[in-house]
């Protein structure tokens, strides 16, 4: 019999993902789920799904989940964590959710040092509503609501959420990673794990921004979309660890 | 227990603590700030959670999270803040999470002012957020009821897995009266649906998205069944000298106190006046109001707004008798003398 070298993590359900071909959510869901399984905390984790393509996250994560209103996941997570300080609480949010309608909630959850982990998926667009521009859309990028490209005089500038949050006192861990290559996927996994470990050590707010692809709304093949992350997003959104309270990071 | 002299807002906050509530999320706004201030002092002593959120939007979503995690939780605000909470309240009602929301009403619309008002009746009973849902709405008219109805609100919220609102106003919130606290707080119900970690069971999911039309309709019908049950069993109403009244007054909350004084003044002048006071504004005590008005020849609705409960009274009385209205708004409170004048005018008309 062949040796089993990979298996579905128990922290994911058996529901097949509804995401588009080439979408990064499937990979990122799996990284979060594997982390939760490896830390052995699935039975004491409460996840918060946000509004956007990942609103259905509660169908995929095999654990207690609450679904939050658009942008409000960090407030919902705050409510849960204050009730259950010894449980693990994470939010999974896209850029429309977190960086536009939910800016107040994310900034204040961070500033309070809420001991939660936030997974922030930045694909520069509102995927679920059909590819409209987001605060993270890069200059010149065409979307359905910036058909001539993002013009800073009209639409302002892309928002560096990791840079912004890392200036706040309550924040214990901020890193920006991506999934455009297998090596980057591995790095993303390590960052997510570190963020959850920071939560386990009760050190404060932990945040991982994942640069992700949206081939459907970018009108690209999945392969070109990954290339686009590397070539177009990295210059604006540099990868790295902005801040950490994790032991090994010191 | 002996009576203690307390302000309405403090009594409400103390009643919530005595009801076993140890979680409060809020945001400052006049005229309810005594509630968070009281709790900011008390909660740390009780190992409870007092958290001042960055906005009412965040506060109600913290309530959503905490209620989902299965604890007794409440928030308090006033008109403009309640408007901001309306999104979250819709989610909470849709997800059938128990919690208590307090509105210490002030003048509106917009920033309005900070004076006592009853201008949020329609918002509380009819349109507090998007979608087909209802809050249980309780309207105290004394400091004693600020305490009693708060305890009841926690009980009803858990019994029906539905948000319950205390609809009070700046007058009741700020004034002091003797109050005696109920020594038997409502027992906490089991919450097997709460998200506290899926240990040895299937995951619990608190969700307000039902993408399939049939599934959403089914959920809505289930809510309607619950609302029907609440309507049948939870209507609360008080009558005062209504039995033989020719002129029946209808008023709720602090305004009912002025109306009661006016009834007494009218009686002393030989006019048979009475009062009916809805205590639950939703469910609205339609039958009880109709019953109280059985022998009446006219009705006078008085409110601290421009005519909101008036519509529910019209529905309840089904055009059987003429209905008059005396409303004051912007923080102006109808005086017993003004109400009496209105009663006398109606009485003259009745004599024709």
Strand order of the largest sheet of chain B: 3-2-4-5-7-6-13
Work out the radius of gyration of chain B: 21 Å
**Spatial ordering of strands, largest sheet of chain A:** 2-1-3-4-8-7-9
Overall geometry of chain A: globular
How much of the sequence of chain B is in beta strands? 15-25%
Strand content of chain A: 15-25%
Helix content, binned percent of chain B: 40-55%
The CATH superfamily title of chain A: Thiamin diphosphate (ThDP)-binding fold, Pyr/PP domains
**Corresponding CATH architecture of the largest domain in chain B:** 3-Layer(aba) Sandwich
Order of helices and strands of chain A: HEHEHEHHEEEHHEHEHHE
CATH topology of chain A: Rossmann fold
- Count of DSSP H/I helices of chain A: 10
Number of spatially distinct domains of chain B: 2
What is this structure's SSE topology?
The complex is a heterodimer of chains A (250) and B (352).
Chain A: H1 25-38, E1 45-49, H2 57-60, E2 64-67, H3 73-83, E3 88-94, H4 95-101, H5 103-111, E4 117-122, E5 125-126, E6 132-133, H6 152-155, H7 161-165, E7 171-178, H8 182-200, E8 205-211, H9 215-218, H10 222-233, E9 240-244
Helix pairs in contact in A: 1-8, 4-5
Chain B: E1 4-7, H1 8-18, E2 23-26, H2 34-45, E3 49-52, H3 56-68, E4 73-77, H4 79-94, E5 99-105, H5 121-125, E6 136-138, H6 143-160, E7 163-169, H7 170-174, E8 176-179, E9 205-206, H8 213-233, E10 237-240, E11 247-250, H9 253-268, E12 273-278, E13 280-282, H10 286-292, E14 298-303, H11 309-317, E15 323-327, H12 336-351
Parallel strand pairs in B: 2-3, 2-4, 4-5, 5-7, 6-7, 11-12, 11-14, 14-15
Antiparallel strand pairs in B: 1-8, 6-13, 10-12
Helix pairs in contact in B: 1-2, 1-6, 3-4, 9-12, 10-11
Task: Name the features.
heterodimer, A: 250 residues, alpha/beta, Rossmann fold, seven-stranded mixed beta sheet, 10 helices, globular, B: 352 residues, 12 helices, 42% helix, 19% strand
């Amino acid at each position: 019999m062949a040796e089993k070298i990979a298996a579905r993590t128990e922290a994911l359900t058996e529901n097949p993902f509804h995401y588009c071909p080439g979408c990064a959510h499937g990979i990122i869901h799996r990284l979060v789920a594997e982390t939760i399984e490896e830390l052995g905390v699935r039975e004491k984790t409460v996840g918060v799904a946000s509004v956007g393509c990942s609103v259905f996250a509660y169908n995929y994560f095999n654990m207690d989940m609450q679904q939050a209103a658009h942008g409000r996941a960090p407030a919902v997570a705050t409510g849960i964590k204050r009730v259950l300080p010894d449980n693990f609480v994470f939010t999974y949010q896209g850029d429309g959710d977190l960086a536009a309608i939910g800016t107040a909630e994310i900034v204040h959850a961070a500033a309070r040092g809420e001991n939660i982990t936030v997974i922030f998926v930045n694909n520069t667009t509102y995927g679920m509503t059909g590819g409209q521009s987001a605060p993270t859309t890069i200059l010149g990028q065409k979307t359905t609501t910036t058909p001539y490209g993002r013009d800073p005089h009209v639409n302002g500038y892309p928002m560096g959420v990791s840079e912004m949050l890392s200036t706040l006192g309550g924040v214990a861990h901020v890193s920006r990673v991506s999934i455009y290559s297998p090596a980057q996927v591995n790095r993303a996994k390590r960052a997510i794990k570190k963020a959850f470990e920071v939560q386990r050590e009760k050190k404060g707010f932990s945040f991982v921004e994942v640069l992700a692809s949206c081939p459907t709304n970018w009108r690209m093949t999945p392969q070109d979309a990954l290339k686009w992350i590397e070539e177009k997003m990295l210059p604006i959104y540099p990868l790295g660890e902005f801040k950490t309270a994790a032991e090994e990071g010191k | 227990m002996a009576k203690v002299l307390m302000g309405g807002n403090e009594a409400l906050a103390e009643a919530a603590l005595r009801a076993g509530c140890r979680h409060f999320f809020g945001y400052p706004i006049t005229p309810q700030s005594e509630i968070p201030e009281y709790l900011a002092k008390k909660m740390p002593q009780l190992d409870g959670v007092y958290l001042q959120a960055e906005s009412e939007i965040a506060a109600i979503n913290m309530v959503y999270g905490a209620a989902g995690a299965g604890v007794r939780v409440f928030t308090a605000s006033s008109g403009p803040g309640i408007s901001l909470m309306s999104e979250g309240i819709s989610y909470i009602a849709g997800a059938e999470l128990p919690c208590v929301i307090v509105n210490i009403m002030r003048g509106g619309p917009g920033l309005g002012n900070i004076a006592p008002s009853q201008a949020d009746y329609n918002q509380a009973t009819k349109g507090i957020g998007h979608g087909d849902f209802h809050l249980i709405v309780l309207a105290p008219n004394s400091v004693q009821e600020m305490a009693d109805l708060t305890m009841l609100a926690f009980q009803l919220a858990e019994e029906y897995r539905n948000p319950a609102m205390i609809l009070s106003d700046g007058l009741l919130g700020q004034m002091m009266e003797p109050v005696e606290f109920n020594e038997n707080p409502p027992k906490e119900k089991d919450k097997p649906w709460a998200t506290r970690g899926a240990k040895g069971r299937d995951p619990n999911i608190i969700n307000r998205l039902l993408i399939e039309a049939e599934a959403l309709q089914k959920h809505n019908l289930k809510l309607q069944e619950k609302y029907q049950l609440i309507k049948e069993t939870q209507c609360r109403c008080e009558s005062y000298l209504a039995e033989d009244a020719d002129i029946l007054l209808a008023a709720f909350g602090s305004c009912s106190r002025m109306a009661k004084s006016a009834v007494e003044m009218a009686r002393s002048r030989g006019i048979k006046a009475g009062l009916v006071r809805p205590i639950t504004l939703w469910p609205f005590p339609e039958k009880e109001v109709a019953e109280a008005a059985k022998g009446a020849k006219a009705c006078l609705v008085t409110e601290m707004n421009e005519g909101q409960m008036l519509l529910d009274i019209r529905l309840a009385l089904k055009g059987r008798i003429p209905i008059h209205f005396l409303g004051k708004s912007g923080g102006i409170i109808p005086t017993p003398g003004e109400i009496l004048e209105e009663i006398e005018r109606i009485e003259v008309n009745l004599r024709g």
